[in-house]
Amino acid sequence: MAMLDTAKRWARGIKRDTVALWLAARDPRVPWYAKAAAGAVAAYALSPIDLIPDFIPIIGYLDDLLIVPLGIMLAVKLIPAGLMQELRDEATRSAKPVSKAGLIFIIAIWMLAAMALLWLFWPMPA
C-alpha cells in the first residue's frame, strides 16, 4: 500500500510541475533558455495527443513514464529554486491548461510522417 501512495504522490507532483512549467514559460523572471525548455516540456505533456500513441504496446507509455519526467526534471533544474517553488504553489491553485501548440505540433509530425510514407511507397509512373 505504501508503494501505491508513493506512486500517487509522484504522479501528482508530475502534474503540478507540468502546470508550473507552463506558467514558467510565460513568466518574465525565468531565463530564456529555461522558458524554452519549460515551454517545450509543458506543451508536449499537456498535449491531448501523444507522439507515441498509448495503444502501442510497451513503447506507447514510454513517453509518459520516461520522456516527460526527464524533461520536467531538466526544465526544473534550469529555473531558480525559489521561483520554481512560487510557480509550484501557483500551479497547485490553478486549473490544468491544455496545450493547443502541443496538439498542433504532434499532428504536424504525424502528417509529415504520413506524407513521407506516401512519397516512399506510392508507385511512381514509369
Automatic annotation (TrEMBL):
Annotated TM spans: 101-122
Topology term for the membrane: Multi-pass membrane protein
Pfam assignment, any one: DUF1232
Annotated GO CC locations: endomembrane system
Domain of life of the organism encoding this protein: Bacteria
Localization per record: Endomembrane system
Claim: ATP-binding is one of the keywords in the record: no
UniProt cross-references to InterPro entries, sorted A to Z: DUF1232
Domain DUF1232: residue ranges: 34-70
Alphabetical keyword list: Membrane, Transmembrane, Transmembrane helix
UniProt name for this protein: DUF1232 domain-containing protein
Source organism per UniProt: Mesorhizobium tamadayense
